[in-house]
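User: ok so my PI wants both of these folded by tonight, can you help

Assistant: No problem, let's get them done. Here's the first:
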Amino acid sequence: MSFPATEIAILPLLPGSQIEDPSSNAGKVWTDTINTVSQQDGFQRAYWGRRIENPSEVQLLIDWDSVDAHKKFMATPEYEPFGKHIGSILDGAVSIHHAILKPQSSSTVASRFSAPVTEIVTFYFPSSTSASDKSDIEDAVSKFSKAPQQHAEGFRGLSGGWIVEKVEHASVGEGWGFVGVAGWDSLDAHMAFRETKEFKEAIMDLRNRAKGTAMYHVKLQEK
């Protein structure tokens, strides 16, 4: 079974940018941006929302047929003006990576993005991480996924995968990232599970392997 390549983009907005209001300048730019992306060959679907922990940043998740499909769009003559247009409402550089997110539980990948609250967590590993090490880490993720399925109230499902590109993080410098995307009924449901004995025992192996982690939550809406 093949899975889409998910573009994971973080966009820092200029203060006062009300992208949720389609009548505002920022809202018009944002609508133009999503509409342009959705018309590209290889586009499947898009989800976006402000980070709960930092509402000045927008999380954009775009499923493409492949990483090459996204890169093909980036290589078109239209991409430069497209970038300048969205850049008019941004307060800094955009972070863009790609990952192949595979289900780690019984529900579908799409359900992760359509849950009331989406948790996005990245585990960081040194650049020396071997293919064998990555396989062991994938096994550790698979084992961990059983804990929320069996013990967490409000858990909707989990998908995860390696970030295609190398990433920068204070814990490793340049290294590899494994990203997990989990759906929850609410932020409180996730935070309550994190306080349980089952979570603390299940996450120990991953935490011992990873050199660093980053986690946040988003209320996503589909394009």
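One down. Here's the second:
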Amino acid sequence: MPSSKGRHCCGLIPIKTGVLLITIFGILNKLSGFYGILSFDFSDIFTTIIYIYSLVAIVVFSYGLYGLYTDNVRIFRWYTMFFWLDCFFSLITTIWFAVTWFVFTDHSLPELADDPEKLAEHDRVFKMESQVSIAVLVILRLIHFYFTYVVTRYYKLINRLNYSRLSTNENIDLEDTLAGSRNVNNGEPLTSPKPAQD
């Protein structure tokens, strides 16, 4: 694939290498579902669904890696669509867990109830940690959206390249057909030879 300006990931590496790294990182990230299933803790149905989804995602990401390796446009199109689905699914699960943790989970320490100074210190530290955690989660979601953009851009590049190749092949076939149907000497269409007359 030709390399030109705008065909890089993070402005540093070729886009195909970037997509390769993004896909491998995605597979490693989804391995949490495998370990979640191995923990045999199915008390939270939402978490169990995420574990199962992660296992399915490992298969799809691996298939996308195969499509990337073989430059198979059809496989990579499905992978790109799934990557967008994964991006939104990850956004929803991040919001769900963040709200559950920061809003609905009680972080108070009953043993500090008698010491207002330590309780105030605990609340201050927890507030600071919450702000840092939320900032990190937002940055990670933005990176995921950027990775999705990179995967989509690469798909568009290989799709355009594949379409150009198909168009060129069709033009060559059409030119061969037209050249075969015309007489090279005078440009007139070839006619079938007349049978010899006695």
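The mean pLDDT is 81. The radius of gyration is 29 Å. Good luck tonight!
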